[in-house]
Amino acid sequence: MNGSPSSPHHQDARVFETHAQDQTAALGRAMGQRMNHGLVLLLFGDLGSGKTAFAQGLARGLDVPSSFIVTSPTYTLVNEYPGRLPFSHVDLYRLPTPVDPDEIGLLDLFNEDGIVAVEWAQRLHPTDRPACRMDLFFTVTGETARSIRMIAYGLDPSDLLNDIDVCSPRQR
User: Fold this and answer.
1) CA-to-CA distance for 158 and 97, rounded, in angstroms?
2) CATH fit for domain 13-171, picks 3.40.50.720, 3.30.1490.20, 3.40.50.880, 3.40.50.300
3) Is 32 helix (H, G, I), strand (E, B) or coil?
4) Per-residue model confidence as pLDDT tens digits over 82-107
5) Which of 63, 80, 155, 159 fits a disulfide with 84 by CB distance 3.0 to 4.6 angstroms?
6) Which among 104, 134, 111, 130 has a CA at the least distance from the CA of 35?
7) Which helix (H) or strand (E) holds 18?
8) Residue 104 burial (10 A CB sphere; 0-12, 13-18, 19+)
C-alpha cells in the first residue's frame, strides 16, 4: 500500500486495515489499553474516515467510564474525560488554518501527562506538532473499510506501536 502523500515512508510506521467501525474502535481501545503515560495523537483524514470511532475506542481503552458518551468536540473544541489517564479529545475542524496552538490552549494540553487525540491535525502547522507523538492517517478504502497508517515520533510512541497486534497490521 502506498502511504498518504503527507505521510512519507518511515521506519516506525505501521498500517492497519479495518473493515467495520467497531474494528476501528477496537484498534483505538487496544492502543489505549497499552498506554501508561502521556502522549499526543494527531489524527488526519477526511470526514467519515474513522477518526472519531478510533477516539471513542481509545477512550474505552483508557478506562473512561461508559457513563461518558465520547463525541467529537466539533463545536466545543475540547472534551476532557477522566480515566486511567486523563483523555482530551480535540477537534480543529471549524478553525481556520493554520491554528495557533498556544492561542487555544493546545500547548498546555500537549504538556500535561494525559492522552490527547487531535482530529483535523492538518490544521496545525508542522512546526507546532510535538516532537514525541503519533500521527495517524485515516483513509477510506471501502464502504466500511479503513486503512490507518500510524507513524511514531520519539522512542515511547515507537515502543507502543510495536506492541499493537489487532486487526490486520501491515509493516511499513
Assistant:
1) 29
2) 3.40.50.300
3) helix
4) 999 999 999 998 887 787 888 888 88
5) 63
6) 134
7) strand 13-18
8) middle
